Amino acid sequence: MSRIVALFRKGITDVGAALGRDKISQSPSRRKAAPTAARRVLFFYATGLLLPSSAAVPNIVLIVADDLGYGDLGCYGQKHFQTPNIDALAELGIRFTQAYAGGPVCTSSRSVLMTGLHAGRTPARDNVPHYETYLRMEDITVAEILSSRGYRCGGLGKWSLGDPGTEGDAKNQGFDMWFGYQNQDHAHYYYPEYLDDSSSPTGKLELPNNNRTRADYSHDLLTDRAMDFIAESANRPFFLYAAFTLPHFSHGSEDSDRLAVPDWEGFGRPNWSDAAKKYAAMVKRLDDDVGRIVSLIHRMGLAENTLIIFTSDNGPLGSGPSEELDNNGPLRGAKRSLYEGGIRVPFIASWLGKIPQGKDSDEVIAFWDLVPTFAEVAGANIPKEIDGISIMSALKGEGLKPERDYLYWDYGHTRPRYDQAVRLGDWKGVRLGQGSPLELYNLKSDIGEGKDLAKDHPDVVKRIEKIMDSAVTPSERYPIGESYRGGPIWQKTW
Length: 494
Prior knowledge:
- By secondary structure, the protein is of the alpha/beta class.
- It has two domains: 3-29 and 57-405, Alkaline Phosphatase, subunit A (3-Layer(aba) Sandwich); 408-470, 2-Layer Sandwich (Arylsulfatase, C-terminal domain), CATH 3.30.1120.
- The chain is built from 14 helices and 14 strands.
- A ten-stranded mixed β-sheet has the order 6-5-4-3-7-1-8-9-2-10, sandwiched between helices. The chain has a four-stranded antiparallel β-sheet with strand order 11-12-13-14, covered by helices on one side.
- Strand 11 and strand 12 (419-424) form a beta hairpin.
- The longest helix is centred in the middle third of the chain and has 26 residues, at 274-299.
- The model has no long low-confidence stretch (mean pLDDT 93).
C-alpha cells in the first residue's frame, strides 16, 4: 500500500502537508471534523459494525471545478501555489494531458457532459439566451442511464440546465438529490441567502441574512453535503456529481475583486496582489475539500470500487490574477475562447486496483465521452445517438478503442461573433466568425497555437471546413447571427 493511500485511509486530508510538500504560507484549514452523517458512518466502519458493500457495481464520483485553468494545479505545472491533495489523487491514478471540456463556458460544457452530445448537437449550446430550462424530458442524461442500473444519483453545486420545477430541473433529469444552484446566475453568490435543496419540503435551504453576516460560505456547505451523500449511499451503487463553483468569480457586491473567499489574508507571498491571494485561496480550499472527499472514500473502504474523476468545466477567466499566477500554463486563450486555453482542461482519474497509478496519458478525450464511459462502468447499454466513445481503455493506460474521427466545438451563436473549432488528429482548426478564413495549428509541435499553417496545408483546411459545415444540427433556440439582447431570468431577492 502506497504512503499516499495510507494517509488518505488515516483521514489525513492534507496529504501534501503530511508529505512535506506544501511550502507556501497559507491560512489553516477552517474545518477539522467531517459533517454529521459522514462522521457517524465513519464511527461504524472504524468499530467494524458496518462493512463496505461487496456489490460488484462500481460507484462513480465526478468532481468538476468551475473555471479552473489547465495550469492551476501543481501536477500540471503550477509554480506559484500548491495543490497537494489533487496532486496526490493524480499519483494514485492517471493524469490526462489532452482532455477537453464540452465548451468554453458553463452551460454548454455541462450540457455536453450530461448528454454525450458535442456542442453542435447538445440541447444547451451557450450561456445565452437565458431560458428557464435547457433540457427537456425527452433528453437522456447520464444520471438517467445510471438510475436505470439502480444507482443513487446525487448532484450538488452548479447545475445550469434547468431551474427548479421545470423540465430541466435536476430531479427531472435522473438525480435523486440536488443541492446548491440550479440557475447559473444564482451561483455567482458565495454568500447567498438560500440554496436550492431538493431534500427540503420548500425546495430551499434558507440562509437568512447570510449575505450580510457571511456565516455560511456556500462551497463549505456543498462539500459537507457531498460527504453526507457518500456516507448515506455506502451500501448501494452511487453516482456523485460534485459541480463545485470554485474558483469561478463572485458577484461584485461580495468582493471588490469579484473573488469572495474567507481566510485569504495570510495566503500566498507578500508581493502578491490581493486578487492573486484570493484566487489561490479559492483553489487551495477546493484542493482541501477534494482531499476530504477522497479520504472519506478510502476510510470507508470504497476506493477499490469507486471511480473518481476530477476536472474543470472550461478554461480560466483570463483576467484578474490569471497572468500573475500563470493559471493557463502554455495555452493560448481562456474562458469564452475556442483556442486551447478555453477548452483544454485538467483531467485526473483514480480507481484503486483498476487504473494504473502515477501514469500520464496523452490520449485525446472529451466531456462527451463520459456518458458512454459511465454507462460501460455501470453495465448499462450505451446510447446509440451520441457523439462520445467510452474511454475505459484509456483509463486503464491503453490506447483509445476505437479511435475517434474528430472533436468539435462552437461558441457565440447569438453573440456578435460565431466561432467554431475542430480537432482532427494533431491538427486544430479555428474559425473566428462566419466567413472568416480558417486558422490551422499542429498541436503536437505548437501547443500554444502560435503558428498558423493554413496556407501550407490547404487539404487539411478543406477537410476541417467540411466537418464544421456538417457537425452542427441547427437549433431554433440558438439562431446563429441573431444577437441576444435579453437578460438573466434569476434575480436576487435579498
